Amino acid sequence: xxxxxxxxxxxxxxxxxxxxxxxxxxxxxxxxxxxxxxxxxxxxxxxxxxxxxxxxxxxxxxxxxxxxxxxxxxxxxxxxxxxxxxxxxxxxxxxxxxxxxxxxxxxxxxxxxxxxxxxxxxxxxxxxxxxxxxxxxxxxxxxxxxxxxxxxxxxxxxxxxxxxxxxxxxxxxxxxxxxxxxxxxxxxxxxxxxxxxxxxxxxxxxxxxxxxxxxxxxxxxxxxxxxxxxxxxxxxxxxxxxxxxxxxxxxxxxxxxxxxxxxxxxxxxxxxxxxxxxxxxxxxxxxxxxxxxxxxxxxxxxxxxxxxxxxxxxxxxxxxxxxxxxxxxxxxxxxxxxxxxxxxxxxxxxxxxxxxxxxxxxxxxxxxxxxxxxxxxxxxxxxxxxxxxxxxxxxxxxxxxxxxxxxxxxxxxxxxxxxxxxxxxxxxxxxxxxxx
Length: 436
Known about the structure:
By secondary structure, this protein is α/β, with parallel strands linked by helices. It is 49% helix and 14% strand. The longest helix has 40 residues, at 2-41.
């Protein structure tokens, strides 16, 4: 009997031991489960970024995938906007004016920065990055993202206007690349007279922002200025400005190195003329290079680039374009947004972006990067153009200021007004706008 009781007691103890182990494991499992559950169910931070539809795909397939792989707690939601940058600016502006913007990261054209910063729509990034870190970027790219000595965006990619030329035709005729406006006219007329081309020089003369961008390069070449951002002094009615307009008019008449319709041209009209082999010189942006050097292009391998020509009193100017990333003042995730900016503007991400999408980097080292130069051998020369970059006036009222210049410059180029009268009116209206 006693033996049976001992056997039963052993079985009970074994059961109790099993239950104790089971309870212990359950408690441990529960602690692990409940301690990890918030991490498992926590939703990743989503950062909204508005950009033009053509730009969206290279971002999605390239650097965004890489960033999200490295930062699993952050997602980038691309909102595809219209192709026209002015319409994109309108969308940003409307979102800010209506209240808290839904966009965390703000992808900005260089000419938007002063307006957005002055309105209080952007976070000040000055203390987020050191002077040493900023020194890796092209100086003008950084300057274009400042307003009243504060930094509001980090350059993502650069863009500059430049002078394209037919190196084959110049070499064949014994000409060196032009350094002055006189050289440009002389070479153009010579090659036209020899029947090598229909036109010498094509540029953007239509009344739109591209006209202002083109004109700041010619104005720099004549030693003039548009608006001094420090003093708000206006230089549109100065002799240098009038001389710059007179030069552009002479390319149409009497020299006839530019077609009569040039005052209606935007970038693409001028590119097609040049790419079809019908002009010696072209003022345009870097996007032309890969298109002009496709296998089907008649000028493939026959072109070169340089900064715009100038007078002895002026200097070469390359109008600065390009895009930068800022953070919305109303973003609920500013730290995550800054982490994204740090990656997207890093050397690693920019190299990948340049190689896959063909954009111009904002980091100087990448213009000489062996991988990039192997694919784009003109980049070392492009860096020389970037070093000649000039800004359109970095002022809060830039959009209205540009509209005034465009209207009166177009009137002067199409002979509806004399250059002197047009610029007198333009200067007067600009001074009134700026409170001068």
